[in-house]
Amino acid sequence: MDLRHVTTARLDLDAVVPADLDEHFVLMSDPGTWAHLPSGRHVKPERTAEGIAHSQRHWARGGLGYWTARLRSDADVPGLRPGQVVGTGGCAVREGMSWWNLYYRFTPPAWGRGLAAELVTAALDAAHAVAPDRPVVAYLLEHNAESRGRAERAGLSLLWRGPDAGNPDPNAVRLVYADRPLDHGLLERVTALP
Ligand SMILES: CC(C)(COP(=O)(O)OP(=O)(O)OC[C@H]1O[C@@H](n2cnc3c(N)ncnc32)[C@H](O)[C@@H]1OP(=O)(O)O)[C@@H](O)C(=O)NCCC(=O)NCCS
């Protein structure tokens, strides 16, 4: 199974590569995709290129990483063009970490269409196939209702609620979800991540 190229009902999921830079910058510089964390928005393509370089290392290290999600050429979703990049995400083992980090970010016109759900299902299946012993973890902001809903409907359980480390907003609350109980040390590392 080549996890670098996966197809779902309406998406082509391809490992993130440097050639995706322009389309990723459009996604990552869109204030709509950062409504819950405006400080995270990319203002320069160099920042996006850094993220792509991280993604390439994830694939090299863990045999799995984040995908670029394009609408399939035979998919008919009103308001979206076939072939268009609609989002990014997946499961990756980030530098210095031992768990699968579940991530998803889609362009607002793609929300509420079940497209993120297709990517998340594929990501969980892939992570469980590549390294079932690694827990899948998602951390997110409490006020991000869509992200919470996506994690909960993917079957992850809420394990922790507390301050959002590194957030310029001191009142921001982080939630940690996982597909199984986490040992104390791992949970401490997730809650300390900036
Ligand atoms: C988080 C995010 C990806 C979630 O998007 P979303 O719209 O909730 O997720 P989906 O597109 O999968 O939509 C889910 C809903 O679409 C609806 N839907 C409409 N058409 C559908 C279809 N054909 N098939 C399936 N579901 C469909 C369903 O009601 C579904 O809800 P359900 O899961 O309860 O069944 C999106 O809000 C986002 O990118 N936000 C900005 C980035 C971000 O904050 N990322 C998280 C960082 S931690």
The general outline is: globular
Low-pLDDT segments: none
Number of strands: 8
Q: Characterize the quaternary organization of these chains.
A: single chain
Bound molecules: coenzyme A
- Give the proportion of residues in helices: 25-40%
Helix count, DSSP H or I runs of 4 or more residues: 5
The SSE order reads EEHHEEEHEHEEH
CATH secondary-structure class: Alpha Beta
CATH architectural group: 3-Layer(aba) Sandwich
Describe, in short, the structure shown.
The radius of gyration is 16 Å and the shape is globular. Helix content is 31%, strand content 25%. With 194 residues, it is of the alpha+beta class.
Structural description of this entry:
- By secondary structure, the chain is of the alpha+beta class.
- It has a single domain (5-192), classed as Aminopeptidase (3-Layer(aba) Sandwich), CATH 3.40.630.30.
- The chain is 31% helix and 25% strand.
- It has five helices and eight strands; from the N terminus they run ββααβββαβαββα.
- The protein has helices at residues 21-28, 45-62, 115-130, 145-153, 184-192; strands at 5-7, 11-15, 66-71, 85-92, 100-106, 136-141, 157-163, 173-178.
- An eight-stranded mixed beta sheet has the order 1-2-3-4-5-6-8-7, sandwiched between helices.
- α1 crosses α2.
- The longest helix is centred in the N-terminal third of the chain and has 18 residues, at 45-62.
- It is globular.
- The mean pLDDT is 97.
